[in-house]
């Protein structure tokens, strides 16, 4: 592939080759994003004691074990930890974990879940990682 240099010029053919490679790379990056799954639920967790947790299941159609999960809350969760994982087909279990040293009672919130199918991130055969 041609390289762009500050003092060099590129022919039309070299520029076209570079742009084609760029578009191929962009397409490869965007492909996994097109399969993102989503779900949300209203959650009014009970008061959570220190070292305790509260869980809420959210339906995300198409989610399977092993998929990657992102979770966010519509309110400040006051130093609690919010995590999520696919625990069954079409089900993401969200957990609020309290390690603050005291009880926390949050208000009602909406928990939003995004699931990135693991199959979307299969490494290309030509990809080599070196350290």
| Integer average pLDDT | 86
Question: The CATH topology of the domain at 37-118 is what?
Answer: Immunoglobulin-like
Strand order in the largest sheet: 1-6-3
Estimated share of beta-strand residues: 25-35%
Q: Shape, please?
A: elongated
Helix content: 10-25%
SSE order: HEEEEEE
* Level-2 CATH architecture of the domain at 37-118: Sandwich
Give the C-alpha Rg: 22 Å
Structure class: alpha+beta
Number of helix segments?
1
Question: Main β-sheet: number of strands, strand sense, barrel status?
Answer: 3 strands, antiparallel
Termini Cα gap: 24 Å
Low-confidence stretches: none
**Beta-strand segment tally:** 6
The CATH C-level class name of the domain at 37-118: Mainly Beta
Task: Give a brief description.
The chain has 131 residues and is of the alpha+beta class. 17% of the residues lie in helices and 33% in strands.
Description:
It is built from one helix and six strands, in the order αββββββ. It is of the alpha+beta class. The chain has a domain of 82 residues: Immunoglobulin-like (Sandwich), CATH 2.60.40. A hairpin with a 2-residue loop joins strand 4 and strand 5.
């Amino acid at each position: 592939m041609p390289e762009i240099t500050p003092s060099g010029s590129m022919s039309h053919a070299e520029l076209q080759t570079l742009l084609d490679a760029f578009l191929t790379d962009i397409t490869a990056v965007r492909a996994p994003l097109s399969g993102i799954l989503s779900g949300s639920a209203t959650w009014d967790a009970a008061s959570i004691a220190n070292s305790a947790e509260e869980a809420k299941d959210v339906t995300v159609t198409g989610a399977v074990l092993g998929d990657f999960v992102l979770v966010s809350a519509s309110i400040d969760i006051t130093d609690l930890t919010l995590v999520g994982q696919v625990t069954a087909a079409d089900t993401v279990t969200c957990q609020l974990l309290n390690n603050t040293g005291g009880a926390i009672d949050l208000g009602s919130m909406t928990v939003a879940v995004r699931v990135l199918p693991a199959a979307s991130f299969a490494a290309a055969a030509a990809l080599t990682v070196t350290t």
